[in-house]
């Protein structure tokens, strides 16, 4: 007896089991299921302008009610003319708080920076470097990564903003689309035209809104500094990473103070159109889906399950996709990344990066990263400051009043700190000479 194909088996099973199915239905489940995954749906929806592909999002996805809420709230919070800034905030494209920033030349301290600084500080991006350069041999409980970002090219802003693009996980929506199309085909095979129409409605409505969003234009807006201000050199400082920014004040401002906006053709009216389409999908599916047959409801739930899995994965990797996309706004700066074995090593690297070619006091940088008041640290910091001020290509160490009062334990710590400083200095001079 030949084996039946999966499709013919499914059809015969549906015909022979109608009596048993009459005692079991998914009416409530199929209606309520469209409200699951709202946060993930908003995250996936917000990533569309970074992918820039109009074929993304063509699948029957749950959670559209959350998208409706965010879009309507965006429009109602203020005038249409300012919707772009509010839209970026509502969809999570802006608004995250970046780390502390210390400007080495002007002395300005910002306790919190803006979204682009957050992305830069938390990304795994290292420019053209495949691996960070390891500096120092000491095993320390506080290793740090230090990244030097040189803005050699001007960072375009406003209407000249470079389009942010990412290819991370860009093929994943194809799986959800294939699952939704397959669910439609199965509904046709059992002649459940109502379920077929509801799944198709989800595909079309989600596809249209995603296509509109994929054509959105993300722009970077920055404050224009006053004439005559010094260079914007400084550092973003967090517990495990230091990001050195070197460049003109306006380029550094784009990272520390820049605002992101999402502009759509048609402005706020386009936002309302997307909200209306998503609301129509939610309403019709909520009203009519419970009247579908059991196999049709199963196919509907299956399409939602695959779609919500796709959205959840994209939501979990939102920071990764954002970082790969938004960093393109910086116009390919030159980057050098170091993996410092200790916080002291990172502190010396930061001093060299910010003070070697300027008149910035090294003490100002050191005290933001390491403690310099304890005796051993005080003696070490004096050595570091003196050698950097003199711009010595070989660090010279000698005893002074600060080293005379150290006990054996402090002497041991000082020697370790000196080794850290030597390693940082030698590596920086090597890279600086090559450059």
TrEMBL record:
<keyword id="KW-0812">Transmembrane</keyword>
<protein>
    <submittedName>
        <fullName>Uncharacterized protein</fullName>
    </submittedName>
</protein>
<feature type="transmembrane region" description="Helical">
    <location>
        <begin position="267"/>
        <end position="288"/>
    </location>
</feature>
<feature type="transmembrane region" description="Helical">
    <location>
        <begin position="28"/>
        <end position="47"/>
    </location>
</feature>
<keyword id="KW-0472">Membrane</keyword>
<feature type="transmembrane region" description="Helical">
    <location>
        <begin position="294"/>
        <end position="314"/>
    </location>
</feature>
<keyword id="KW-1133">Transmembrane helix</keyword>
């Amino acid at each position: 007896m030949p084996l039946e194909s999966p499709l013919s088996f499914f059809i015969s099973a549906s015909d022979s089991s109608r009596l048993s199915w009459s005692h079991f239905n998914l009416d409530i489940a199929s209606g309520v299921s469209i409200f699951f995954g709202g946060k993930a749906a908003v995250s996936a929806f917000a990533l569309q302008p970074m992918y820039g592909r109009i074929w993304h999002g063509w699948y029957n996805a749950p959670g559209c009610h959350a998208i409706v809420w965010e879009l309507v709230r965006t429009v109602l919070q203020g005038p249409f003319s300012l919707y772009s800034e509010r839209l970026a905030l509502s969809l999570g494209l802006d608004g995250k708080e970046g780390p502390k920033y210390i400007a080495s030349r002007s002395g300005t301290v910002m306790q919190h920076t803006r979204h682009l600084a957050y992305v830069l500080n938390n990304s795994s991006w290292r420019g053209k470097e495949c691996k960070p350069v390891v500096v120092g041999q000491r095993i320390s409980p506080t290793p740090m990564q230090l990244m030097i970002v040189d803005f050699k090219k001007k960072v375009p802003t406003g209407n000249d903003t470079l389009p942010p693009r990412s290819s991370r996980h860009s093929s994943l929506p194809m799986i959800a689309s294939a699952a939704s199309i397959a669910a439609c085909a199965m509904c046709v095979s059992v002649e459940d035209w109502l379920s077929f129409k509801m799944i198709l409605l989800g595909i079309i409505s989600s596809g249209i809104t995603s296509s509109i969003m994929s054509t959105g234009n993300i722009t970077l807006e920055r404050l224009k500094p006053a004439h005559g201000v010094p260079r914007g050199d400084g550092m973003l400082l967090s517990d495990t990473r230091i990001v050195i920014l070197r460049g003109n004040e306006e380029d550094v401002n784009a990272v520390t103070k820049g605002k992101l906006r999402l502009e759509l053709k048609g402005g706020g009216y386009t936002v309302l159109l997307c909200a209306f389409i998503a609301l129509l999908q939610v309403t019709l599916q909520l009203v009519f889906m419970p009247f579908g047959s059991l196999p049709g409801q199963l196919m509907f739930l299956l399409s939602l399950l695959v779609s919500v899995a796709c959205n959840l994965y994209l939501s979990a990797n939102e920071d990764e996709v954002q970082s790969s996309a938004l960093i393109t706004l910086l116009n390919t700066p030159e980057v050098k990344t170091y993996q410092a074995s200790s916080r002291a090593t990172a502190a010396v690297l930061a001093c060299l990066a910010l003070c070697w070619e300027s008149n910035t006091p090294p003490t100002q940088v050191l005290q933001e990263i390491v403690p310099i008041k304890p005796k051993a640290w005080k003696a070490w910091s004096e050595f570091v400051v003196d050698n950097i001020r003199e711009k010595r290509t070989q660090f010279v160490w000698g005893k002074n009043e600060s080293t005379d009062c150290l006990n054996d334990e402090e002497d041991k710590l000082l020697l370790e700190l000196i080794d850290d400083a030597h390693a940082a200095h030698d590596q920086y001079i090597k890279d600086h000479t090559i450059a």
